[in-house]
Amino acid sequence: MSSEQLVVSPSSMQSMIDSVQASLESQYLADDRPWVVAFSGGKDSTLVLQLVFNMLLGLGKRATKPIFVLSSDTQVEAPNVAAYVTAAMDTIQRAATALQIPISTILVRPTPAESYWGKLIGKGYPPPSRWFRWCTSNMKIKPSRRAIENITHNHGSVILLLGTRISESSQRGRAMQAREINSRGLNPHHEIPNALVATPIASWSNDDVWEYLSDNPCPWGGNHSYLFSLYRQASGGECPVIFDLNTPSCGGSRFGCWTCTVVKEDKSLQGFIRSGEEHLQPLVDFRDWLIELRDKPGYRSEVKRNGNAGPGPFLPAARQEILEALLALEKQVGLPLVSEAELVYIQHEWSRDFDFQGNSVHDVATKYGRDIAMPGNPQETTHPEDELLEQAAVESGLNPDLMRELLEIRRRDFPSLDKWGAKSRFERAVGDLIKKAAQQVEQTTQA
């Protein structure tokens, strides 16, 4: 919590609450579009969900439109944060069911083919860097967007409620103020079709958020004491549910993935350790070891998969070494770090690359007490074009997120460059995209 709390008068705070509650109620009753509340477990998304939950309680029997609470588990989140979010989602769903309000919780995860260990150990991808950040689209954007697309398929369109605030950062504030909004204060999502975006606490300050959470208990039961303790320990911020590439990597000072190699230091995880979570230190050591391997001679192929000069993927012996070290770490810390489905997928990739007998993963897993059943080929859920795009990015040493966004701009906004002025507008759009990517790199470097 901020060490320099602003004094907010009760009447001023109540006025803010009443204004947001009235706006939410008006928006909710205005049409039949279902809502999706992005919930990361951090303070901003908790505040938005709490306001929505209280609104539904106030509406009583008039609350009939479905609301989906969407959260993302990359499967490599900081273990204490992941456990907190999972428990919160369970509590929210039980309370909503008991109170008969139309809330459904959705916890999305990447498929084994999209997962961190599936990419790094299975395919041999190098750990993500600020220049080659392949993790965000695979582990966060794709799973969340699949859930959104399923809802829009059934309901036609949705309204996304996000906890973004203008005062979070100057860059975030400029981006939010530049968006076009309709008469109801909604703006179309620039990447998800049939989705409008609402930011009900956009004008709230950091101190306003803490003031509200301190004075108002969870309507789904319990209190915010553990959330407060996470922030005190981590000295960081919330890593939001990510739907697009406008959101930077969540390393640095935010709750993020314990494997994050995009930043120099995971400040939130280090904060947890300094606050008494010493059992997490081996995770930090393992993450640092992965960074060393990224450029260590003899660990990566000297040629890329397309035959051009390297550095290419991790060599088979390196992938086997990383898997064994990961399973040893799992046993050491007593936490599940890699799923059975991921191990099956890793074996699938190894069998295609080098392990033609198809039993190496099973043998290593057995050594560390994991009894893994190895079926035939796992079902691939990635689209062929996504796989080709990502492979091209890997072979070229480019950021796959940036390439994907560039192609999406070309396909969505500029289907033809023959129209007058289209080429110049396309060039500006490409320039803006590159500038945004450079700003994300700069932010990550500073973190």
UniProtKB/TrEMBL annotation:
Source organism, top-level taxon: Bacteria
Coiled coil: none
Keywords: Transferase
Classification via InterPro entries: PAPS_reduct_dom, Rossmann-like_a/b/a_fold, Sulfate_adenylyltrnsfr_sub2, SulphurTrfase_DndC
One MF term in the entry's GO annotations: transferase activity
Short name of any one Pfam family annotated for the protein: PAPS_reduct
Residue span(s) of domain Phosphoadenosine phosphosulphate reductase: 36-261
SUPFAM superfamilies: Adenine nucleotide alpha hydrolases-like
PANTHER family in alphabetical order: PHOSPHOADENOSINE PHOSPHOSULFATE REDUCTASE, SULFATE ADENYLYLTRANSFERASE SUBUNIT 2
Entry protein name: Putative sulfurtransferase DndC
Source organism (scientific name): Candidatus Propionivibrio aalborgensis
